[in-house]
Each structure stands twice: as structure tokens, then as C-alpha cells.
Design a protein that fits this description.
This protein is α/β, with parallel strands linked by helices and 343 residues long. It folds into 3 domains: 103 residues, Cobalt-precorrin-4 Transmethylase, domain 1 (3-Layer(aba) Sandwich); 113 residues, 3-Layer(aba) Sandwich (Rossmann fold), CATH 3.40.50; 83 residues, 4-hydroxy-3-methylbut-2-enyl diphosphate reductase, catalytic domain (Cobalt-precorrin-4 Transmethylase, domain 1), CATH 3.40.1010.20. β4, α3 and β5 form a beta-alpha-beta unit. α4 packs parallel to α5 and α8 runs parallel beside α9. The protein is globular and about 65 Å long.
């Protein structure tokens, strides 16, 4: 039996994931036909399967979208040329990109227009990296390690540095320092590209690490920020395990140890609860490192569509006085967990 179990806060859904899940839920509710989604809406197997069960069709190429279909673009960001392909093919296209990813796209466009070559720190073949590199493909170079910086060979006064938002701080900082030493005039964004939620979850684990022997990180293997949490603990010399279901606990020895449990930014909290109850520790504590109040509104295209539909229904049924329980005016108080439960 686990001795002490610390449930770490912050954990689980970030504001970008909240927005994307709610947006796709709205799409299912207002369109009476299959909804397509470019890439996994978020990198979590349970959530993707939940939407598949409700007739969402996930695709990886604009060519797979039937003419005049309904499509949503994932939270990870889409290259401009790919987004235009979807707009030209679809009847309705909604982009649920996280605003923090949009920020990186804007920076890439600005640096490219200024004639700079951009070193982009990210994971090859990750959806976010693919989308970002598509903003200025002729002026961006992907690097994954400190060693990759040595191969860039760029003019010192024409270089900028950007990052995938979900990197571990331990991944980003050595590459940042190497790039700054290699290119003394390198230009950086005014504000870090790393996602606040990714960074907060890593800092929380660092701050709880001296109290525990092992850490359980709930999330899918495709989730970069989940893997970053595992890396963060491993770099401290502690044992960390990524888990998705109760079955993943079978080969992990947890008897008479102190354990912390957290979740990546795309992992649903009910899995954390299930695992915590299953472990049945001698003592359960909630470790609150910081609180998050960030909120991202629904994509503007979707807000416009919902508003138009609401006006149409009001005109069709002028005597109806019943108020919407979860209209877009109340979106901030409606959680992604509630949205998933409503499906």
C-alpha cells in the first residue's frame, strides 16, 4: 500500500485544451452530420476515442476531407497553406488552435519578414512543430538538441529563436544557452514561448519532489507536455512513470513509498481520481503549488456560428422563454469535463 499520496495542483487540462474540447463538443451539437478533425484534437487517447464514439472523424491530410464537410483544426496549430486547403474544401472550417501556439506563429511570420533565419526548438514530427514550421518553411530550421545548434551555420546578425510550447524546461534551457553563445545577436520573443501550463506543472513536480519516492504522470505517449513531466522528474534522479489506465500500475512497485500523482495538460482528471482511489493510500494530501485562472474563449468562427443559430431559433420560436444552460455567454463557467460528460 502507498504510504503518502500527494495529488499535485496544477495538473490536467490547460486553458487551450479546455477551449478545444468545448469547441469540438459544440460542433457535434450544432451540426447534424459527421464532424472531421485535422489531427487529434488534443493528444490524449481517452478523449480522442470519446469523440470517435460520437462520430468525429480524425484525418491527417486535407485530401481526406470530403467536399463541403464540417472540419475543425486541432489545438496544436496548422500551417497556413494547409489551413487554406481545408477552407477551400470545407463548408465550415473552425480553427481551435491554442492562442499560445498562435503567438509562436505570429513571431515566426514577423522574424521571417524581417529577413531572419529562425531556429525552432521542437520535436520532429510533432503536430505543433509541423504547423509552426509551415509558417515560414524557407526560413526555419528545426533543432532538437544542443548538438543540433552546431550544424545550423547561420549569419550571426540574422538569427531568431523560437520554441514548441510544450517543451520541458530542461530541454529548452540548454539549447537556449547554446544558441545565445553561438549567436551573440540572436533575437528572442519578448515573452517565453513555453506554455504557462507546461511550465507550472513542471515547477510543481520539482517543488514536491523532495517529499516523494516516485511520481505517477497521467497522460498519453503522444503528449509532449506529459513526457516533459516524466523527463523533469528523471532529471532530478527520481523515478517517474507515465500511466493511462489502472492496468499500467501492474508493473510498478508502490508498497510503503511516498508518491505524487499529476497529469499532463491534455489528460482528463477522472483518471487521476480513479487511480488515487485504487491506490488507497494510508494518507492522501493535496499539494497546491499554484492556481491557474487562464481562460481562452471559443474560436471566433464558432462563436459567430452559434450566435447566428441562436438568433435563428429565437426568430422561429419567439414565445420561448427558456434560457440556455450553457450558452456561449456562459462559456467561462462551463468546463471541458462537463462538455465531455454532455456527449
Amino acid at each position: 500500500m502507498v504510504n503518502n499520496l500527494y495529488v499535485v495542483t496544477p495538473r490536467g487540462f490547460c486553458a487551450g485544451v479546455e477551449m478545444a474540447i468545448k469547441a469540438l463538443t459544440w460542433m457535434l451539437k450544432i451540426y447534424d452530420e459527421p464532424v472531421y478533425c485535422y489531427h487529434e484534437i488534443v493528444h490524449n487517447d481517452w478523449i480522442v476515442q470519446r469523440f470517435k464514439d460520437k462520430n468525429v472523424i480524425f484525418i491527417e491530410d486535407p485530401k481526406d476531407l470530403p467536399k463541403d464537410s464540417i472540419v475543425m483544426l486541432s489545438a496544436h496549430g496548422t500551417a497556413p497553406t494547409v489551413e487554406m486547403e481545408f477552407k477551400n474544401t470545407s463548408m465550415t472550417s473552425v480553427n481551435s488552435v491554442c492562442p499560445l501556439v498562435t503567438k509562436v506563429h505570429h513571431e515566426a511570420r514577423r522574424f521571417s519578414e524581417d529577413g531572419k533565419k529562425i531556429i525552432y526548438v521542437g520535436h520532429k514530427n510533432h503536430d505543433e512543430a509541423i504547423g509552426a514550421l509551415g509558417v515560414a518553411p524557407d526560413n526555419m530550421i528545426l533543432v532538437e538538441s544542443v548538438e543540433d545548434i552546431d550544424q545550423t551555420n547561420l549569419h550571426n546578425d540574422k538569427v531568431a529563436l523560437l520554441a514548441q510550447t510544450t517543451l520541458a524546461m530542461s530541454e529548452w534551457e540548454p539549447i537556449l544557452n547554446k544558441a545565445k553563445s553561438e549567436y551573440q545577436n540572436i533575437e528572442l520573443p519578448r515573452k517565453s514561448d513555453l506554455c504557462y501550463a507546461t511550465t507550472n506543472r513542471q515547477k510543481a513536480l520539482i517543488n514536491i519532489s523532495n517529499k516523494v519516492d516516485k511520481v505517477l504522470v497521467v497522460g498519453s505517449s503522444t503528449s509532449s507536455n506529459t513526457n516533459a513531466l516524466v523527463t523533469t522528474i528523471n532529471n532530478l534522479g527520481k523515478e517517474a512513470h507515465r500511466i493511462e489506465t489502472l492496468d499500467d500500475l501492474d508493473n510498478i512497485s508502490l508498497d510503503n513509498v511516498d508518491v505524487a500523482i499529476t497529469a499532463g495538460a491534455s489528460a482528463p482528471d477522472h483518471i487521476v481520481k480513479e487511480i488515487s482511489e485504487y491506490l488507497n493510500p494510508n494518507n492522501l494530501e493535496f499539494f497546491i503549488d499554484t492556481t491557474e485562472e487562464e481562460y481562452f474563449p471559443l474560436p471566433k468562427e464558432l462563436r459567430s456560428n452559434i450566435t447566428s443559430l441562436s438568433k435563428l431559433l429565437k426568430n422561429m420560436f419567439p414565445t420561448n422563454s427558456k434560457e440556455a444552460v450553457n450558452g456561449i455567454s456562459k462559456d467561462k463557467s462551463w468546463s471541458a469535463t462537463e462538455a465531455l460528460s454532455s456527449l
